Amino acid sequence: MLTETTGAYKCPLCGKISRHRIVVGADESDVYDLDTRPPETRRSTMFSWVQECPYCSYVASKLTDRPPVDAAFLKTPEYVGCGGIAFQSDLAKQFYRLYLIKTRVGDARNAYWSALEAAWASDDLLDDQSAAACRKLAIEPLEQWIEQQPDNEHLKGMKIDVLRRAGMFDEAIQYAKQLTFSDGFLQKIADYEVELAKKQDAACHKTDEVQ
Ligand SMILES: [Zn+2]
């Protein structure tokens, strides 16, 4: 069950106040996607994971957080034009802009999540082209995160899925083949990913498909 309310937030860059939807309760009653996207009802709470000031277009996980960029960053062509990606989803656009901000400040982990979330929001509107573009963007920060945490097998497992769902099937297969997971379930997921990639299947698959 999803419970939500709204709250007023002051934009730290332009000073104007806007209202945003806030989720106060959500549950998870199904299985996760292979890339860790949660099931319903949490799956449908993405609108509350990013807040955009409607006046200056600044985005943040929470507008009350201390801004890591200044107002000039919001005028850069990449921010204004969303990197030339023809997003069909406003939510995906917001996550893309959050990705730009996180990349700018060198936060690889959150740049990765924001790019992946832009892909998820695009998936929901069947905007396959933007979703694939965002997954391609997610690879570099994910690789940086893996460099920071070389023993984290979950990150490597996610990378296989990101490559496959970006349509980079050969890269997904090659990457998976060079890995050995100490976690048996992750190894099964990696094997399944290879099977899917060999069939050039870029669709969403869930963890309960793995035997
Ligand atoms: Zn603002």
Structural key phrases:
211 residues, mainly alpha, two-stranded antiparallel sheet, binds zinc ion
Quick structural summary:
This protein has seven helices and four strands.
Give the topology, please.
Elements: E1 3-10, E2 17-25, E3 51-52, E4 59-60, H1 77-81, H2 90-104, H3 108-124, H4 128-148, H5 153-165, H6 169-177, H7 184-198
Antiparallel strand pairs: 1-2, 3-4
Bound molecules: zinc ion.
Tell me about this structure.
The protein is mainly α. It has a domain at 149-201. It has seven helices and four strands; from the N terminus they run E-E-E-E-H-H-H-H-H-H-H. It has helices at 77-81, 90-104, 108-124, 128-148, 153-165, 169-177, 184-198; strands spanning 3-10, 17-25, 51-52, 59-60. The strands form two sheets. It has a two-stranded antiparallel sheet with strand order 1-2. A two-stranded antiparallel sheet has the order 3-4. The mean pLDDT is 96. Zinc ion binds next to loops. Residues 11, 13-14, 16, 53, 55-56, 58 line the site of zinc ion.
